[in-house]
Specification:
By secondary structure, this protein is of the alpha/beta class. It contains five helices and five strands. It has one domain: 3-Layer(aba) Sandwich (Rossmann fold). The longest helix has 13 residues.
């Protein structure tokens, strides 16, 4: 069983992801914005993060990922830099912007479009955990 942190401001999306991940045997914790998510990383030490893009700001998820993956060895998040991040977002249906994992600009491990496909989410999470 892995501990998974969901960082998303949509309570319905958090509940949907929680239900499918808990059914797959994972423990789920949640945060509703980037700053709470970063604080939760330090206190809860999750095994994987599921991250939304648009929360309090339209790029909050991007900023979260960049902060967590900051290469500076003195970063307060250096110990968590290698945590897998799955970006789960509706940005492709709400904006003309097309994004995906990129080591320098969007340092996440996987990108899944909303609406949530429970089987796809669980498969991606399990693949990254293994």
């Amino acid at each position: 069983m892995a501990k998974i942190l969901i960082v998303d401001d949509d309570p319905d999306m958090v509940l949907a992801a929680r239900l499918c991940l808990e059914r797959a045997g994972h423990k789920v914790i949640e945060a509703h914005n980037g700053s709470d998510g970063l604080a939760t990383v330090k206190t809860e030490h999750p095994d994987l993060i599921i991250l939304d893009v648009m929360m309090d700001t339209t790029t909050e998820g991007f900023q979260f990922a960049l902060t967590l993956r900051n290469p500076d060895p003195k970063s307060e998040y250096a110990a968590f830099r290698s945590l897998p991040i799955v970006m789960l977002t509706a940005i492709h249906s709400t904006a003309p912007l097309r994004v995906g994992p990129d080591r320098d600009y969007l340092p996440v491990d996987a990108f899944i479009d909303k609406p949530l496909d429970p089987d796809k989410l669980v498969a991606q999470v399990n693949a990254l955990l293994n």
